[in-house]
């Protein structure tokens, strides 16, 4: 996990102050400022904002900051996702669960039964809950 944080730090170090403002703008769900007005305010063409939206450093920074700011909600979402996987025996919910916790990025369509996936989900959640309770 440390490598990921180092990588994120390297991304943000490469960003200009305007790009960092853009990241904050993207994450501000209550902002009523239009993209045009934001571009004018920071002194860049709107086309620059469109380019920045596909910049890997900005995309990664937005994702990381969003995760950081919403970190307390993530366990609740994972728990709801786990419950959906268990109650509905939904392999798609299992796959999404795994992707979100960054344990694995792909569960093959063939070769892994729903029961096997659910056992893995339960084990990871138990480990996570035990880890969280020991950190309190």
Notes on the structure:
The chain has helices at 2-13, 17-27, 35-42, 46-53, 56-69, 74-88, 91-100, 114-135. The protein is mostly helical. It folds into two domains: 2-69; 74-135, no CATH class. Helix 2 packs across helix 5, helix 6 runs antiparallel to helix 7 and helix 7 packs parallel to helix 8. It is elongated, with a radius of gyration of 19 Å. The relative contact order is 0.08. Mean pLDDT is 76; it is low at 1-8 and 103-110.
Shape: elongated
Cα distance, first to last residue?
20 Å
Largest sheet: none
Approximately what portion of the residues adopt beta-strand conformation? under 5%
Task: Domain count, please report it.
Answer: 2
- The poorly predicted ranges are 1-8, 103-110
Computed over alpha carbons, the radius of gyration is 19 Å
Number of E-state strands? 0
The helix fraction, in percent, is over 70%
The arrangement of helices and strands along the chain is: HHHHHHHH
Please outline what is shown here.
The chain has helices at residues 2-13, 17-27, 35-42, 46-53, 56-69, 74-88, 91-100, 114-135. Helices cover 74% and strands 0% of the residues. By secondary structure, it is mainly α.
């Amino acid at each position: 996990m440390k490598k990921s944080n180092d990588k994120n730090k390297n991304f943000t170090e490469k960003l200009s102050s305007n790009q960092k403002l853009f990241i904050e703008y993207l994450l501000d769900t209550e902002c009523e400022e239009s993209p045009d007005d934001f571009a004018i305010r920071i002194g860049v063409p709107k086309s620059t904002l469109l380019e920045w939206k596909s910049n890997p450093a900005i995309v990664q920074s937005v994702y990381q900051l969003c995760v950081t700011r919403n970190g307390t909600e993530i366990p609740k979402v994972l728990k709801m996702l786990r419950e959906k996987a268990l109650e509905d025996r939904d392999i798609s919910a299992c796959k999404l669960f795994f992707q979100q916790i960054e344990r694995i990025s792909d569960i093959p369509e063939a070769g892994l039964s729903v029961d096997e996936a659910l056992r893995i989900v339960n084990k990871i959640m138990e480990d996570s809950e035990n880890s969280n309770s020991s950190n309190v």
